Every structure is written in C-alpha cells, then in structure tokens.
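Researcher: Quick one. two chains, 517 residues in total.
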Amino acid sequence: MDEVARISQWLADSGRMNFTFLYDSFDRGRLLTGIGNTLLLSLYSIVLSVMIGIAGAYVITARIPVAARATEMLVRLCRNSPPLLILYLFFFGLAAFAMQASGGRMNWLLGSGFFWATIAISIYIGAFNIESLRAGIETVPPSLGEAAAALGLTRLKTFALIVLPLGFRVALPSLTNNLVELVKTTSYGYAVGVAEVLYVSSQIWADSLNVMEMMITLFVVFTVLVGFVVVAMTMLERRLRLVTR
Amino acid sequence: MTLTFDSKQAGPARKPATTFKWGKALAPLGIVTASTIGVLLSARLWPESAAILPVLGKWTPLLLKGFAVDLAILSASMFFGTVLGVLLGLALLSRSAFVRWSIVPVVQLLRNSPGLVFLFFVAFALPFKFTLFGLIVPFPGWAKIIFSFALKISASVAEVFRGAVLSIDKGQWEAATALGLSRSQTFKLVIVPQCMPRMLPPWMNIVAIFLAAVPLASLIGIYDAVTYAGLAIKAEQRPDLIIPIYAYVTVWFFAVGYALHELTLALEKRGY
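Model:
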C-alpha cells in the first residue's frame, strides 16, 4: 500500500495524474463509502426489482381481473417515462406525503434519498423485469399448467413450482440486460443526494480539480460492477441449465 | 388441418395483413394534447384561482418551452448520432482488422458506460471553449449535452447498422461482385438500401430510449422541462403542487415515448 501511495504521490507531484484517493486517506474513505453505497443500492434494487418482476408476471399471466390491467398500465408507464422524473415524483412528491402520513416518526427512513432511490429504481427496472419474465413464462407450454392442476396443485403453487422455474430460465438473458441497466441507473441517485459513487466523485473533483482522473475511476468502477452482474448471471444460467437428452 | 399450416410456408414475399390500430398508439398523445389545451384554457378562464388546474395552466407555456428544448436536444443528437453511428458501423465492418479492433473498444465503452457518468465526463472534463486556428470556439452546455448524447447514440446506431448489414443475404454480395460492382458501390447501391427498412424499428427504439434520458440535461444546468418544473414548484411554494407538476411533465414524455414504442412494434409486425 505504501508503494501505491508513493507512486501516486509522485504522479500527482509531477503534474500528470492526480488520483487523490490513492494517497489521501480522507478521499479514500469518501470514495469507498460511495462505492459501498452504490453496491448497496444496486443489491437492494436488484432483489426488490426481481421480486416486483415475479409478482407482476404472476398477476399478468394469471389474468387476475383488475390487477392484471393495472400492472400492464404500470409497465407501459414505466417503460416510456424518463427515470429521472419517476425518481423526482417519488422523492419530492411521495416522500412529503409519506412523512406527513407517518406523523414524522419514520423520517429517518422516509426522508432519505437512498430509500426513495431504491424504490424508484426497483419499480422502474421492475417494469422491464415484468416484461421479460412474462415473455419467458409464455414460452412454457400450457399443458404443463394443466397437468399440475390435474395433480391438485393450486394456481399459486403451479406458478411457483412449475411455470416460474421454467419461464425464469428462458427469461434469464433478458433479465441480465435489465440488471446491467439497473446498475447503470443507480448513478441517478446523484440527483436526489444519495452519496453513491458519482456523488462522492463530484465532491472529490470539486475539492481537488481532478475531473479526468475521477472520471476514469468512475468508468472502472462501473465496468467492474457491470462485469460482476454479467458473470454472476452467466454462472446462474449455467447452474440452472436443464439437462436434456 | 386448417389452412394456417399452408400460409406459413408461403415464403417471405407474402406480407402479413397489418392490423395496426393507429388509434391505440396515438390515443395517449391525443389525450395528453387535449388535456394540456384544457389546462391552458382553465388558466384563461379562472386566472385568479388557486386550484391546481389553473395554476398548472399558468406554468404550462414555460413547461412547454422546456419540453421543446428537450425535443430539440433529442432531434439534434439523433441526427448527429445517426450520421456518426453509420460511419462507426462502416468501420466495424471494415476489411482491415486494425480499423475494426481499434473501433470495437470505443463502441463498447460508449455503449456500456452509464449515461449520466458519460454526460458528466463530457460536461466537466472537456473545456468550456477551445482554440481552433487562433479562433476561440465556445463549447456551451447545450452543445455538450448534444455531443455526449450523439456519441452514446452513435454507438447504438453502429451496432444496429452492423447487424442490419450482416443480416443481408450473402448472395447479394456475390451477385454484386459478379456484376462488377466495387465494394463501395455494393454498399451504396445494393446493401444500404436493403438495410434501411430493417434498421428502422431498432432505430426508433433508440429514439425512445434517449427520449427517456434527455431530462438528464437538467442536471448539468440546461433549462429543460424538468428544470422549469422545479423552478415552478419553488416559485409557488406549495407542497401539494409537487406531484401534479412533475406528473404533468412525465405524462408528456410518456405520450411521445408510447407512440414511438407502438409504432416500432407495428413496423416489426409488418415484417421489416
């Protein structure tokens, strides 16, 4: 670590590249916090958005009377509106209502940009997940569902045990695309003051005027994150591959 | 056996009957336009009222001006992005491996970086003005956002163009060579005209994607619809207006994006 610090200090002194976070522990702490927040935001949103996707796909494919129409409308709305505006609607609009409704007891949660960014990103990407999973589930032959019904499984059990596991495998590649998009969308958290990696980078370059260096860092961070998602999803895909004769 | 089996084998020349409902695609656009006019009228009728609709109507001209800025940024960056994208696509298809492999990382970096990070890169890492042949050329915010969007769009267009060219039957190339056309002539006269209809649906998809990304302009200080919406909320000092104003602007974006989306689906169904 000392070597890295010395080399980066020399780079900065000679006026080439000023990676402040390599030799300055304060900047390093900020950057690591930012990366941690981006990771947490991505992780929570991935879990929540996949859950939204599964629930929505169930509601649509089971043709539950009103809820199916409502979910379809939500999907259309989310797919065609700017994510920034959705985030603003949640953070500036809904947050005030929620805080009033809870009587100020939940402000630590309802007042935080992190919470609303998680919700907004999850719903926005969740809409795309619903579409992917619905398309995957539609490739499952209906005779399988009928066979499950004949065996006495309930509708929910048929979905959870028979249809979803098969449809999920088909939907995996397009789900991967959505989750990569999700990781990239976490940078929108900047707009509502979430201390994620773009936000802390902008603070660091405001102090040290090393915009170019921080930009390179950002590109590296996001490339690594996206790489993680792609590798994890490919491994999952391989793990879940059906053995066919 | 029904006749469907036969009709499936009729070959690619048969065009399936289109049952595209223009009404379905354009209905949200019509409803939104009508209600915007209604909101404007309500501001005319009750100019002193403090209800939500007249207040929205009061701000509508300003918000529409911002929305026009959004659409102008989108069309300008689509124009430059498409031109640059076709050039990049040609480079991706180049016969020289050196050209191909020097372009691939550029396209991948542009496609896979988060839009907001790339926008910040262009906005803050590039100078506000630069000197060209002793002439000082300013590089203001609106030019930067068009520049950054055009670059991101060009990478997507390049991939679409490359895919479209590769999807053209090999026989076309061979036939063109047999006729004595050079490579550039084959491109211009044979391949690209056939690519155009194939590129149209994915190209419109790109328009829809970047329509949803244009509000990012507000983050680097462009006065677009979202900025004006924020200013209107600040000026009114009424928390109950936050949701209506943002929803009002969202609905405009939604109507345009939805129409584009439906048109794309219709074009795809027609077998382009």
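Strands of chain B lie at 129-132, 135-138.
Researcher: Thanks, that's what I needed.
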